[in-house]
Design goal:
Blueprint lengths: L11 H37 L9 H14 L6 H19 L3 E5 L5 H10 L4 E5 L2 H9 L5 E8 L3 E2 L1 H6 L6 E9 L3 E4 L10 E5 H6 L1 H7 L4 E5 L2 H13 L4 E5 L1 H6 L3 E5 L8 E8 L9 E8 L6 H11 L4 E8 L7 E8 L5 H13 L2 E9 L4
Parallel strand pairs: 1-2, 1-3, 7-8, 7-9
Antiparallel strand pairs: 3-4, 3-11, 5-11, 6-9, 6-10, 12-14, 12-15, 13-14
Helix pairs in contact: 1-3, 2-3, 11-12
This protein binds prephenic acid.
Prephenic acid (PRE) binds next to helix 1, helix 2 and helix 3.
Pathway: Metabolic intermediate biosynthesis; prephenate biosynthesis; prephenate from chorismate: step 1/1; Amino-acid biosynthesis; L-phenylalanine biosynthesis; phenylpyruvate from prephenate: step 1/1
EC number: 4.2.1.51, 5.4.99.5
Function: Catalyzes the Claisen rearrangement of chorismate to prephenate and the decarboxylation/dehydration of prephenate to phenylpyruvate.
Length: 373
């Protein structure tokens, strides 16, 4: 039997009393923190003006979460502890100002999951039908921030997102990674053995191809506009008694009250998608940042070499290089470059200055904290 230091037996009622006492302390402290956040909002409005005050501060949030992880001694692991603080901060931010977040919809997509992971559950959700609509909603000021997918570890970059930055003045304010877990789902009244069709987004069908070939070789796969839409169709079909399944994530299965037949059916166990947070403000340095650039190279020999050489000479770590057609001249290209550091850091500032002398256009898409969670 478990005992405390004085060797008196520790019983369930004693432990529950202790938990009740701790809960009431934690609750009082969280509210004390929330009062501080309300005061932060008042200070910001007094200093920056009520209309132009910036409430969401990604660099500060990243610093808070990193500190939580650094000082954590367990038994809860660092990520679990950071998730708790993530939601506390999100609730505090919602108290300062409720955030309207536009994302690639419909409800139940992995982009919504990314928005909830990054901003917590206190946001006002604004699902959009397309990536450029997310950009427009934030540019028009109808949403405070937007969330768009930018690359998947199995399927590569999302060209729509990269291309949307060209004509936009929005800045990247943050990044968030989501492990993509797919489930095979049916309506509760449907027997999985009767399933005739499986609906999902074409990318999700591709990410589960080997599993489907092994387990459902004779069932027809139907590509639809998103996996959330696939889940919605499976729910509708279920109401008509039609045996249709969907492949989608957890949020969609909850949203459309579907039953999980099989979970984690993706072929690559580390299948991950990276999303960007887009907004109207530049983000100050957090201490561990990344910068994204859009660079139009001059159409001359060695142009790319001369761009890359700058990074090497100043010891700046380039993490990604994507090439897209320039859309201005045939066989002309633009480069999307990510590197470690903030555009205000001395070495990064020097690289950007040199690139400006060597390229026909350099646009800083944003410096932002490296994803903490
Ligand atoms: O420090 C701030 O600027 C705050 O507004 C407080 C706080 C927090 O709860 O810690 C809340 C929202 C911001 O995004 C960052 C941090």
């Amino acid at each position: 039997m478990t005992t405390n230091k004085s060797e008196t037996p520790v019983t369930l009622p004693i432990l529950r009393d202790r938990i009740d006492a701790l809960d009431s302390q934690i609750q009082a402290l969280i509210n004390e923190r929330a009062i501080c956040a309300e005061q932060v909002a008042e200070v910001k409005m007094a200093e920056q003006g009520a209309q132009s005050a910036v409430f969401y501060r990604p660099e500060r949030e990243a610093q808070v979460l990193r500190r939580v992880m650094e000082r954590n001694e367990g038994p809860l692991d660092n990520e679990e502890m950071a998730k708790i603080f993530r939601q506390i901060m999100a609730s505090c931010l919602a108290l300062e100002k409720p955030m309207r977040i536009a994302f690639l919809g419909p409800e139940g997509t992995f982009t919504q999951q990314a928005a909830l992971k990054h901003f917590g559950k206190s946001i006002i959700s604004a699902p959009m039908a397309a990536i450029d609509e997310v950009f427009r909603e934030v540019e028009a000021g109808s949403a405070n921030y937007g969330v768009v997918p930018v690359e998947n570890s199995t399927e590569g970059v999302v060209n729509h997102t990269l291309d949307s930055f060209r004509g936009s003045r929005l800045k990247i304010c943050g990044e968030v990674e989501v492990r993509i877990h797919h489930n095979l789902l049916v309506a509760p009244n449907i027997n999985p053995d009767d399933v005739t069709h499986i609906y999902s987004h074409q990318q999700s069908l591709a990410q589960c191809r080997a599993w489907l070939d092994r387990n459902w070789p004779h069932v027809e796969r139907v590509a639809v506009s998103s996996n959330a839409e696939g889940a919605r169709l499976a729910e509708e079909a279920g109401k008509r008694g039609q045996a249709v399944a969907a492949i989608a994530g957890d949020i969609a299965s909850e949203l459309y009250s579907l039953t999980v037949v099989s979970s984690n059916i993706e072929d690559q166990p580390d299948n991950t998608t990276r999303f960007l947070i887009i907004g109207n403000e530049k983000v100050p340095p957090s201490g561990k940042d990344k910068t994204s650039l859009l660079v139009s190279a001059k159409n001359e020999p060695g142009a790319l070499y001369h761009l890359l050489e700058s990074f090497e000479r100043h010891g700046v770590d380039m993490t990604r290089l994507e090439t897209r057609p320039s859309l201005i001249s045939k066989w002309g290209y633009v480069f999307y470059i990510d590197f470690v550091g903030h555009c205000e850091d001395e070495s990064c500032r020097l690289v950007i200055e040199e690139l400006r002398g060597r390229a026909s256009e350099v646009k800083v898409l944003g410096s932002y904290p490296i994803a903490v969670l």
